[in-house]
Amino acid sequence: MSKTQTPLVRLSSTSKFYGPTAALSDVDFDCHAGEIHAILGENGAGKSTLMKLIAGVIEPSEGSIFVDGKEQKLSSPRAAMDLGLICMFQELSLVPDLTVRDNLLLGAPGIGLGRLKADGLERARSILDQIDGASISFQALVADLTLAERQQVEFAKALSRAPRLLILDEATSALNASVVEKVFEIVRQERDNGTGVLFISHRFHEIEALADTISVFRNGKHIDTFANGAYDYPAIIDKMVGQSFDELFPPKPEPNPSAQAVLRLENFGWDGEIHDVSLSLRAGQITGLGGLDGQGQMLVLQGLFGLLKQTDGAVTMDGKSLDLGSPKDAKAPDVGIALVPEDRKTEGLILAQSIRQNMELAATSRSGDDAPGEGSFQAFIEALELKCRSLDQPVEDLSGGNQQKVALIKWLVLSPKCLLLADPTRGIDVKTKTQIYALLRKLADDGVAVLLLSTDYEELLHLCDEVHIFYAGRVVNRLSGDDLTAENIIASSLNLGLTQTMEDAA
């Protein structure tokens, strides 16, 4: 379905101020029914402010918002929802202590639960089944779901509201490539049925695959709007941050086959979930873990951090056997393993505490020579360009990218020998990604063993020296050199082998 002539939603000379700071400045912006409109920009560019204005979370300081050509006062999310403007925010809105069913019912529009049960719940169940969420029970507590499962529920919840405008803010950041494509297929169907879609993602291949139209925001201003395909990556990134796509990832050094193995896993396994995992993490190299979600990659990180009991196989560091019975064992100074978890808000940080308190969390058991000095914190604050008013500011006040920097600094000040990372750039802006990529390469060059789990195959491709692809709890391919390609990462993740195997299967 082609987009309509009259915009579904129009912002006219719209600004949003917080004191003297302009989060959005004099913006004119249109989005149409029957169109997937991607919004690009780094953190602070105004993307989230734009979404919140349309979703009724905040009101503009100046200017007007029109829906179907009629000026509207979107004074609350309910007011926006009543007009069919539904937002799935990056920071999930689900209540952990309620069931999936209760979350789907919570705040739903309509004249009664009977109508919702007959329509919305049935629609949500169908959506979950289509995006590999058939195993997610309506009776399950949200707190017991993985981050990816929670994101699937959030997507189904948004679609069950029958949106006229569907706003997706990093809606696929925790999902693997297979599920993302199924989500995209549903989004395309919604567009073809006349729904307007606003889509925020920091993954360029997702924008390329899904968007009809792209708008770029920078420093609170609307910079440009153009058809998908009108510009290549370097030109788009230059509009966003003045930096080309090729500059996002630091150059890889030439592989050194004789590089020292800092950490080795031999026939590592646990509870029938992972089997015979063998890999070596070498000084000067970044090793990647890839594959579809839930294939055992995360369990390897958890096992190496002492979170799993009664693991099989052997773990050695610098040739010495390790017995990792707890995180305390893993982070001990003579071992030096650190884990930056998947969900920074619930697993990596205490949001109500200050930046300083969060950065000191991992070092609370250390004293004397083992305790990090003030200079250690400051060095990483400067390297990552942490933006804050002061270190006494609550960490919950920071942007997602700056929160992730705090979660990293917390461990980096301990000078780990082995750094385990679970999707460390999920849902953060291009500039922050670049800073983290550069830091990881420097850490590897300085001898830290870096093990990176990523659901973004561009990271595995451009950042890692070798990648181990998991399927059904086993490593089914080890990719490096000329074999490390996007096609081989995807084919191996589906257990089709390398590209020639995929062609045979076709």
Tags for this entry?
alpha/beta; Rossmann fold; six-stranded mixed sheet; 20 strands; 33% helix; globular; disordered C terminus
What's the Cα radius of gyration?
23 Å
Task: Calculate the terminal CA-CA distance, rounded to whole Å.
Answer: 31 Å
- The tally of beta strands, per DSSP, is 20
What is the tally of helical segments? 18
Shape: globular
Tell me about the biggest sheet?
Answer: 6 strands, mixed
What portion of residues is helical? 25-40%
Task: Write down the CATH topology of the largest domain.
Answer: Rossmann fold
For the biggest β-sheet, the strand order reads: 6-7-8-3-9-10
Number of discrete domains:
2
- Kindly name the structural category: alpha/beta
- Kindly estimate the percentage of residues that lie in beta strands according to DSSP: 15-25%
Mean pLDDT: 87
What is the topological layout?
Elements: E1 9-18, E2 21-31, E3 36-40, H1 47-54, E4 62-67, E5 70-72, H2 77-82, E6 85-88, H3 100-105, H4 113-130, H5 147-160, E7 165-169, H6 177-192, E8 196-200, H7 204-210, E9 213-218, E10 221-227, H8 233-241, E11 261-270, E12 274-282, E13 286-291, H9 297-304, E14 312-317, E15 320-321, H10 327-331, E16 337-340, H11 344-348, H12 355-359, H13 374-383, H14 400-412, E17 418-422, H15 430-445, E18 449-453, H16 457-463, E19 466-471, E20 474-480, H17 486-493, H18 499-505
Parallel strand pairs: 3-8, 3-9, 6-7, 7-8, 13-18, 13-19, 16-17, 17-18
Antiparallel strand pairs: 1-2, 1-4, 4-5, 9-10, 11-12, 11-14, 14-15, 19-20
